[in-house]
Automatic annotation (TrEMBL):
<comment type="pathway">
    <text>Isoprenoid biosynthesis; isopentenyl diphosphate biosynthesis via DXP pathway; isopentenyl diphosphate from 1-deoxy-D-xylulose 5-phosphate: step 6/6.</text>
</comment>
<dbReference type="InterPro" id="IPR000845">
    <property type="entry name" value="Nucleoside_phosphorylase_d"/>
</dbReference>
<feature type="binding site">
    <location>
        <position position="192"/>
    </location>
    <ligand>
        <name>[4Fe-4S] cluster</name>
    </ligand>
</feature>
<feature type="binding site">
    <location>
        <position position="446"/>
    </location>
    <ligand>
        <name>dimethylallyl diphosphate</name>
    </ligand>
</feature>
<feature type="binding site">
    <location>
        <position position="404"/>
    </location>
    <ligand>
        <name>dimethylallyl diphosphate</name>
    </ligand>
</feature>
<feature type="domain" description="Nucleoside phosphorylase">
    <location>
        <begin position="26"/>
        <end position="81"/>
    </location>
</feature>
<feature type="binding site">
    <location>
        <position position="402"/>
    </location>
    <ligand>
        <name>(2E)-4-hydroxy-3-methylbut-2-enyl diphosphate</name>
    </ligand>
</feature>
<comment type="similarity">
    <text>Belongs to the IspH family.</text>
</comment>
<dbReference type="GO" id="GO:0051745">
    <property type="term" value="F:4-hydroxy-3-methylbut-2-enyl diphosphate reductase activity"/>
</dbReference>
<feature type="binding site">
    <location>
        <position position="403"/>
    </location>
    <ligand>
        <name>(2E)-4-hydroxy-3-methylbut-2-enyl diphosphate</name>
    </ligand>
</feature>
<feature type="binding site">
    <location>
        <position position="304"/>
    </location>
    <ligand>
        <name>isopentenyl diphosphate</name>
    </ligand>
</feature>
<feature type="binding site">
    <location>
        <position position="404"/>
    </location>
    <ligand>
        <name>(2E)-4-hydroxy-3-methylbut-2-enyl diphosphate</name>
    </ligand>
</feature>
<comment type="function">
    <text>Catalyzes the conversion of 1-hydroxy-2-methyl-2-(E)-butenyl 4-diphosphate (HMBPP) into a mixture of isopentenyl diphosphate (IPP) and dimethylallyl diphosphate (DMAPP). Acts in the terminal step of the DOXP/MEP pathway for isoprenoid precursor biosynthesis.</text>
</comment>
<feature type="active site" description="Proton donor">
    <location>
        <position position="306"/>
    </location>
</feature>
<feature type="binding site">
    <location>
        <position position="403"/>
    </location>
    <ligand>
        <name>isopentenyl diphosphate</name>
    </ligand>
</feature>
<keyword id="KW-0411">Iron-sulfur</keyword>
<feature type="binding site">
    <location>
        <position position="221"/>
    </location>
    <ligand>
        <name>(2E)-4-hydroxy-3-methylbut-2-enyl diphosphate</name>
    </ligand>
</feature>
């Protein structure tokens, strides 16, 4: 345990927590503002989390649900709690039902609906001064539908205390994660020019044609981007045969096989191509090599959409080579007529190792004038390697199905730092942060920049942070939009 203090107004709340986590430093304050102020004065400054039962104010809450305060409000103002998503994530991993939102502190018992998700009588007066870490967890007893002074309150109280007891390990994790840290931001990170172009194409198509606009597969591999575009009216489909005849369809940034374009034309679809120009370059290379009768070794992952589309350019000529073992055994009908191409989102060092094996086995091997791995992938891998060499921990923001994001994790680990891929701050495990005083942060080329901003903000809720940008190169690449939306 660190010096963090857990405050509980009631003795029964303190007993619930200590029964599950005896090493917690739990202080019973008593009920109400005056007793809360007195307890805070006795303990003094430092990280604090308030835990106990409370009243639910919003519809949809049930007895035993937990409310984690995004901020605490009272008559004198608002005290934010930036680490709320981190604590809420820890509680959800324990199987608890968790809501994040404002908690209202009232000097008197509150009745009826109100401002916030939950209400209590102590949290505002237990908040430490300055920027000290502060969190609030309230287990709901009463709700607008089931007031405190009504039949069934004892049973609801038992459910709330059980939930509070189950929450104890997450409170311990939060306490252990508090403290000062340095955040090393890898630069470049987040959106690349190809992703910005693809997302902009869908937005412009929606503005021009109105919803629905159909998109084959995920426009880019990120759940937040897909969710935002769905909210605007985009409809994501697996194949073009799911699109109504004559409708507008956008082809995703990863590229498609010629057969997909032919099917779209047969269905009289209005096609807008969002294929990344660097992926389109690889397609052109494969067509050129295959056109002169060469076997094309495509270095990449066979189940990735980009590779599927590239193979479709000349399936009878393309052989996917996924790793060093495959490179050491792959064959060609005519070893004097061979070439290679690469998936654009691979790890640079691994891809080059595979290419070296192929060059050693096939002296006549032809290849692109420049490696196919895109500038953005290369730049982000170099940047994350630079921060990983200094970091105790690296957090990579990106979705699980994002190849370039997964490669960033691998690069960071090879550089010597433990690394984790997270979709957003809610997936950051507090246990990773215990003892990690220097944290590297980056994001895959398909992850929106605001997710990194959110992560930095949440980490600041665990203690004072200093932020250092580690820039390895500066990107100024821009791609033009297709005429359909320009």
């Amino acid at each position: 345990m660190t010096g963090a203090t857990v405050y509980t107004p009631l003795l029964v709340e303190r007993a619930a927590l200590l029964g599950a986590a005896p090493d917690l430093r739990v202080v019973r304050t008593g009920m109400g503002p005056s007793k809360a102020r007195a307890a805070a004065a006795r303990v003094g400054p430092g990280p604090a989390v308030v835990a106990g039962v409370g009243g639910g104010l919003a519809p949809g809450l049930a007895a035993g649900d937990l409310v984690v305060a995004s901020e605490v409000r009272d008559e004198d103002g608002v005290r934010p709690s930036p680490s709320a998503p981190l604590l809420a994530g820890a509680l959800r991993r324990l199987g608890l039902d968790v809501h994040i939102g404002p908690v209202r502190s009232s000097a008197r018992p509150h009745k009826g609906p109100g401002d916030g998700l939950a209400v209590d009588m102590e949290s505002a007066w237990l908040a430490p001064g300055g920027e000290a870490p502060f969190a609030v967890v309230r287990a709901v007893v009463d709700t607008p539908d089931h007031p405190l002074w009504s039949l069934g309150t004892p049973a609801r109280g038992v459910r709330a205390l059980r939930a509070l007891r189950r929450a104890a390990p997450a409170l311990r994790q939060w306490a252990a994660a508090t403290g000062p840290r340095e955040l090393l931001l890898a630069s470049p990170r987040s959106f690349c020019a190809g992703v910005e172009r693809a997302v902009d194409i869908v937005r412009r198509a929606l503005d021009r044609h109105g919803p629905p606009v159909y998109v084959r597969r995920q426009i880019v591999h990120n759940v937040h981007v897909v969710r935002e575009l769905e909210e605007r009216g985009a409809v994501f489909v697996t194949e073009v045969d799911e699109v109504p005849e004559g409708a507008v369809v956008v082809l995703a940034a990863h590229g498609v096989a010629p057969a997909v374009r032919a099917e779209a034309e047969a269905r009289h679809l209005s096609v807008i191509d969002a294929t990344c120009p660097l992926v389109a370059k690889v397609h052109a290379e494969v067509r050129r090599y295959a056109g002169r009768g060469s076997t094309v070794f495509l270095i990449g992952h066979g189940d990735h959409e980009e590779v599927e589309g590239t193979v479709g350019e000349a399936p009878e000529h393309v052989v996917v080579v996924e790793d060093l073992a495959a490179a050491a055994t792959v064959t060609a009908p005519d070893p004097s007529r061979v070439a290679y191409a690469m998936q654009t989102t691979l790890a640079v060092d691994e891809a080059e190792g595979i290419a070296d094996v192929l060059r050693g086995r096939f002296p006549a091997l032809d290849g692109p004038r420049r490696d196919d791995i895109c500038y953005a992938t290369t730049n982000r891998q170099r940047a994350v390697a630079a921060v990983a060499r200094e970091a105790d921990l690296v957090l990579v923001v990106g979705s699980e199905n994002s190849s370039n994001s997964r490669r960033l994790v691998e690069v960071a680990e090879r550089a010597g730092a433990p690394a984790h891929l997270v979709d957003d701050v809610g997936q950051v495990d507090l246990r990773w942060l215990a003892g990690a005083r220097r944290v590297g942060i980056t994001a895959g080329a398909s992850a929106p920049p605001h997710l990194v901003d959110d992560l930095v903000h949440c980490l600041s809720g665990l203690g004072p942070v200093t932020v250092r940008e580690t820039e390895t190169t500066r990107e100024d690449v821009r791609f033009t939009l297709p005429r359909e939306v320009s």
